[in-house]
Amino acid sequence: MDVDVESLPSYYDPQDNTTREKYRRYGKRHSSSSISSHQENTPSKFREPKVLFDEESVERRPNAALFLEDIKHEVEGFDADYSAKMHSASKRRSSTDSYGFYEVDIAGVESVHRSGSYSLKTCKTEEDALTDGGETTFTLFASLLDSALQGLMTIPDLILRFEKSCRNVSELIRYGSSGRHHAIEDKLIMQKAQLLLDEAASWSLLWYLYGKGNDELPEDFILSPSTSHLEACQFVALDHTAQLCFRIVQWLEGLASKALDLENKVRGSHVGTYLPSSGVWRSTQRYLKKGISTPDSVHHLDFDAPTRENAQQLPDDKKQDESLLEDVWTLLRAGRLEEACDLCRSAGQPWRAATLCPFGGLDQCPSIESLVKYGKNRTLQAIELESGTGHQLRLWKWASYIASEKIAEQESGKYEAAVYASQCSNLKRMLPICTDWESACWAMAKAWLDVQVDLELTRLQPNGLDQLKIFENAISKSPSQEDTGGQTSFGPENWPLQVLNQQPSQLSALLQKLHSSDTVHEAVARGCKEQQRQIEMKLMMGDIPHLLDLVWSWISPSEDGQDLFRPHGDPQMMRFGAHLVLVLRYLLTDQMNDPFREKIMAVGDLILHMYAMFLFSKQHEELVGLYASQLAPHRCIDLFVHMMELRLNSSVYVKYKIFLSAMEYLPFSPGDDSKASFEEIIERVLSRSREIRIGKHDESSDIVEQHRLQSLQKAMVIQWLCFTPPSTVNDLNVVSAQLLLRAVIHSNILFREFALISMWRVPEMPIGAHKLLSFLAEPLKQSTESLLLSEDHLVSENLKEFQDWKEYYSCDATYRNWLKIASENAEVSPLELSAEEKTRATTAAKEALESSLLLLLRKENLWLGSSEDQIYESAEPIFLELHATAMLSLPSGGCMPPDATSCAALMSALYASVCEEEVLNRQLMVNVSISAKDNYCIEVVLRCLAVDGDGLGPHEVNDGGILATVMAAGFKGELVRFQAGVTMEISRLDAWFSSKEGTLETPATYIVRGLCRRCCLPEIILRSMQVSVSLVESGNPPKGHDELIELVACSQSGFLCLFSQQQLQEFLLFEREYSIHNMELQEERDS
Question: Read out DSSP for 540-584?
Fold first, then answer.
């Protein structure tokens, strides 16, 4: 044992502990660049191609507006709030080929959050990543989950990716900045990093408990006779409680091992880094060479001397031994038994390594992996053939127990006592040094596991059952406490009786011990209150329903504000909870009974919904679809409808992200009851866009302007249907055609309503209608041909109507353009008008008149001429219904608030608009009431019996029938028994075929089209007359005036029956005025 001190390096002084501690624990710290050297650029689903700077990624944009918007964002350095996800799913899937996220690209993901300026700002400082505070995990976790849902990785692999991602982001936050921070900033940074590490631990536990498969013992490794190690492995593999303990131990050892690896990576040295022979008692050696001795110090240097002589080595050597044993404990805690033994040998204490590894260094871990690693152990088989199965193992554990007790009694060192206590389940000597939750839990789980194995090996003995009964009797007679000092006299034949009292009876008792500050360190009891620790304990117990309730309680809104559309709680916990729900759903699909399934679906949906709304609130719209697609259909639809309504007036870029998010993750058409579809979402959005929005009304405000603004909001929803679907959608051409057709159908519905509220002769354009036309201009150019090839009557009919409305609003625009010019000229004296201004007015008038005549003179293709609607052949009577929501408008343009009296009067006036005989024959019913949604609006419902020519068979008159006749009188303000000049300004208008019982069936569009013909065509003619009068007054009589008069007078055109009495009077007045001006003009020319 003599060692030449002079042969040691000159810089090593065994009495200088500062140098040694620095070398052992705190090696030279590497620069932060070495930490992130593994980070490479990984393609991501959520990275956007740039228009100006990425030529290879340029794709065809859905329309010019979106293309220009992209260029605008890029040139202006579009800021970091937009996380781009504009690529198709094919580019998305390239991000995770061959599981490329085990080394997670944190820097790459971070750049996604600044994607708008990625091309212009190619450099990012480390501080940018630091200030992220873990928000990269949102995009990163979404990308990983998306890959798993596509089948690119298994759910267990996904759990491991989540763990790795949390660790990498935590490392980046903690060590990724080389700058200096204030104390508070440092504390926050450390806290964020630690929270992510805690989350990583929870993911790791989830994998060990639910993701890791069960190993099976290969038949080639079965020995006969068996060995204690083989029996232990088989027992742990088959016994549920032992297997659970074993997995918990593996999990906790894995966490500790990863912590050591991180310390080695960051600091360059780690636990167990020692100079050779640093465990030799050099101070004691020099002391003995000088011939000095004291009763308290050892007189020999062999390792048994302290015990044999009941003395101690010198304090310096004792301190060094304790430091060495602290590292041995740390390595054992991390499951690194071989490293611990190597450390003892390198420190000059090979005898200690022998006490840790019996049977020639055989790993006694009761795992199939360990069994396969060492193969058939004939040595152990031979030993146990001679001494009996498990005899040597019991002897070794009993010796370890005696050693731990003796060392503790002599106060030789708490770490040395704990090292030997860990080999024999002596919790009493381990728990005092377990100052954190993980260490205490590991000590208890490992001790309990070892005792279960020991009891199983005892049962296999020839008299094993009798021995177990003796154990039970001894325990029942002994006090239930951990003080087993009186049992040290029991020999190895009684093992493990010495430590049975220290073990829990079940897992819940083990976890309860962790809460008791009387049993464990105070820090351990406090750790039980941490969120991730509570999650981990619930996972250990398998109490998934309570776990979900726990997570929901942390992120749910308070009782004061039960708004599920507003995110609450910690964002990282919301993210963790959402992914935990999805992982558990896919992992435990086959194990769910009905109550459990209901719980994980109901509470899980609440957690997912909350996280989706959080992502939406943080402008991560492109990520929402991934999680919304996992919700129950009604929740998914509500969520997307809510988002679309909130982003209705946002940029094209943001709206396209929501569109893609829905198209990529949801089926287009309904099919599976478990999933919502894009069609269901868009139908709800379109329907709600036409509903009344409760707001404040001013009786004196201009209803025309109110309707103009409302019409714009209604029109904006069409843009959701005008985007190009991603190329990965099944049946892309069919889906594109269906989107366009739905846009055309809904546009026609809105065109009808907009036309009925734009009868006022004012210069302002109907902005809603022109917004619709601008949205559909580009899509119709690209896809009209494919729609025209369809033989579907619905397609051709709606395309024809769309073209009719396009022509009508073009005609309307030319008239309003002329009216604007004429109004401007009217403000100036005719003598002061320049020739150019007069010419401009004349040109605009001729253009307006020409466009009107082109629409009116159509012969073969009547404007809004209806074709055959659905013809009913049922024996049951068919009814027609017309539902309208409207406001009452005074002649001044203000709003007339309805009351019960005015509603009754209006109902009576509507009845009076047709003869009594027709009311009886057609069973006409009229109902007018104040709207429940807005007390400034009225609800009008008309119902009548369908007859041939009006509901049954072709409708050749094209006037909408009796219901259109009744409503037209209200729209034109010509109701006989109602306040003169008051008109109904429409907000919503629908017509239906209905059954005798009143069930609405299919739309009766011919009624609304006929109503529009009744209102629009006379107005176009009157406007044309107004323009003609203006032209002839300015000395430029129009050429087509006589043709217009003949057209109205002709019975075959059917125009005359569309006029009301007041409209005919106005028509005649315009004609009289025109004739007067024309005669005056003729007289001037003749003179």
Answer: HHT-HHHHHHHHHHHHSPPTT---TTS--S-HHHHHHHHHHHHHH
